[in-house]
């Protein structure tokens, strides 16, 4: 080497000869220090050996002698496997949950109720599901950019419907294994059912007139479709939160609503006026009918009385014609002369007889004296 002749075979940095065993910086490699140093790091093998000694003292029989380390490792492995099996085989079902056990991936017919349960893992596993009432929001406000709530009503109006579906899980096995994504399926079925019902009704029913009936009909359709899978879902209620026209036609729709309200008001006023006039006309007609009936009864009774009087007079006339004629004459003259002024004149001037008697003057004087 080029530097072998320098300093008796030292390195390129001027190290010592072969007997000094020095490195390139003038010092050779240092071995483990003696017991007086105090800074030597602990040996890994020494730590493992101390741990094994501690386990031997803990284990029954000391696990000493030939093959003791192998037995100890086997025991540790067995205990670890038992711990892992216990954590997987023992499970708890909460009060608001139900569990379905699976044996080789096939769900059992039994449902695990709340409490502590044990399965033969890994041949058996368990799936749990919550049974509390859940809420599914569907539809949306077109003002936020969502169009899922826009629907066509039966009278060709576009309405924006926002509604909620309340449901629970009544069949955990069907809910977990019959439908891949039951929540998404329920959402699609709910929107389809709402569109179907809204498409058969006028927009006025959705806005204010008949929301309760629409909600009930939608709930029945959703439940019938979900039961056809079956999905293990029980729909408890459907609530229409909001129904409004799209933003682009909101002003025109409000104008139409005001016109319809004015129409309803005019019709109501016309009905009130009609009822008033009809009531008056019916009252007048009833009064006229009553008066006509009374006049009819009076005329009939008078005619009947006159007829009976004539018959009675005729009967008397048949018995005594001369007397009856004279009587009729006198009664007739009495009726004729009753209201006229009368003057009595004597035909001959007899002694003591006043030839002229002014009866009207006498009557007046008699009335004034009274």
Automatic annotation (TrEMBL):
Residues 7-39 have a biased composition (Gly residues). Residues 1-46 are annotated as: Disordered. It is a single-pass membrane protein. Its main location: membrane. Residues 88-257 form the Band domain. It comes from the Bacteria. Keywords: Coiled coil, Hydrolase, Protease. Residues 256-298 form a coiled coil. One of its GO terms (molecular function) is peptidase activity. GO terms for cellular component: membrane. The keyword Amino-acid biosynthesis does not apply. GO terms for biological process: proteolysis. It is found in: Membrane. InterPro entries: Band_7, Band_7/SPFH_dom_sf, HflK. NCBIfam families: hflK (TIGR01933). Belongs to the band 7/mec-2 family. HflK subfamily. HflC and HflK may interact to form a multimeric complex. PANTHER family: MODULATOR OF FTSH PROTEASE HFLC, PROHIBITIN FAMILY PROTEIN. HflC and HflK could encode or regulate a protease. This is Protein HflK. It comes from Pseudohoeflea suaedae. The gene is hflK.
């Amino acid at each position: 080497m080029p530097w072998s002749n320098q300093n008796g075979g030292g390195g390129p940095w001027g190290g010592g000869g072969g007997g000094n065993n020095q490195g390139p910086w003038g010092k050779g490699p240092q071995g483990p220090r003696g017991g007086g140093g105090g800074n030597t790091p602990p040996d890994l093998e020494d730590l493992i050996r101390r741990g094994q000694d501690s386990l031997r003292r803990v284990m029954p029989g000391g696990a000493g002698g030939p093959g003791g380390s192998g037995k100890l490792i086997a025991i540790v492995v067995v205990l670890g496997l038992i711990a892992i099996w216990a954590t997987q085989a023992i499970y708890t079902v909460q009060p608001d949950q139900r569990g379905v056990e699976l044996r080789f991936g096939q769900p059992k017919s039994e449902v695990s109720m709340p409490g502590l349960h044990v399965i033969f893992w890994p041949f058996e596993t368990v799936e749990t599901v919550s049974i509390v009432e859940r809420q599914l929001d569907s539809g949306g406000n077109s003002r936020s950019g969502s169009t899922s709530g826009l629907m066509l009503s039966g009278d060709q109006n576009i309405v924006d419907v926002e509604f909620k579906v309340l449901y629970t899980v009544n069949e955990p096995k069907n809910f977990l294994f019959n439908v891949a994504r039951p929540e998404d399926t329920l959402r699609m079925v709910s929107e389809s059912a709402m569109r179907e019902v809204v498409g058969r009704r006028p927009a006025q029913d959705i806005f204010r007139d008949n929301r309760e009936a629409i909600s009930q009909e939608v709930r029945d359709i959703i439940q019938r479709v979900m039961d056809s899978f079956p999905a293990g879902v029980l729909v408890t209620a459907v609530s229409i939160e909001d129904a409004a026209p799209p933003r682009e036609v909101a002003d025109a729709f409000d104008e139409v609503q005001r016109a319809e309200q004015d129409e309803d008001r005019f019709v109501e006023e016309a009905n009130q006026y009609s009822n008033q006039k009809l009531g008056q006309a019916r009252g007048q007609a009833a009064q006229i009918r009553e008066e006509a009936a009374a006049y009819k009864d009076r005329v009939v009774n008078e005619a009947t009385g006159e007829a009976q009087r004539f018959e009675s007079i005729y009967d008397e006339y048949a018995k005594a014609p001369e007397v009856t004629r004279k009587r009729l004459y006198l009664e007739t003259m009495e009726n004729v002369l009753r209201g006229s002024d009368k003057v009595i004149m004597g035909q001959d001037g007899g002694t003591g007889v006043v030839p002229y008697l002014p009866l009207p003057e006498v009557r007046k004087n008699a009335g004034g004296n009274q």
